[in-house]
Amino acid sequence: MSPIFVFAAVVGGVCAVLATVPAKAEMSTAEWLLQYRKGNAESRQLVEEITRATVNGMGWYAARSKVHLYCEPAKMAFTGSQLLDVLRRSSHESAKIVAGYPWSMALLLSLEATFPCEPHDRRWAKG
Questions:
Q1: Residue 19 lies in a domain
Q2: Could you tell me the mean pLDDT of each successive run of 10 residues in the chain, 127 residues long?
Q3: Could you give the CA distance from residue 68 to residue 58 in angstroms, rounded to a whole number?
Q4: Which of 46, 54, 101, 112 could serve as 106's disulfide partner, Cβ 3.0–4.6 Å?
Q5: The CATH number of the domain where 76 resides is what?
Q6: Burial call 52-65: b when 16+ CB within 10 Å, e when fewer
Q7: pLDDT at position 58, please?
Q8: 6 within domain boundaries
Q9: What is the extent of the structural domain holding 59?
């Protein structure tokens, strides 16, 4: 048997196995909040840091694109626990909206609902 045929058979077998395993890129909001609530101090701190870093990335996007999806109060620096509280409150109030989304998308929706931008807000302007 030629090495090419063996390689193709192995790759095909791996692809067939991987196709039967459901892909999961990111935790749901419920899973993320449960991990935070049930975790030890170290894992809770990690969840807070990842949550804060995610919002930091959203801020860099807004600064670069000049499009703000939400408008937090001036001079407000969120902590990870504050952001998780926004997510938790929003997931209770709007369970139907955020239930089907990964936690980071639900967080963005929560921030948009909690800190909406006014249409006349200068931060909406492109350019």
A1: no
A2: 44 40 71 93 96 94 89 87 92 68 92 84 48
A3: 9
A4: 101
A5: 1.10.890.40
A6: bebbeebeeeeeee
A7: 93
A8: no
A9: 29-124
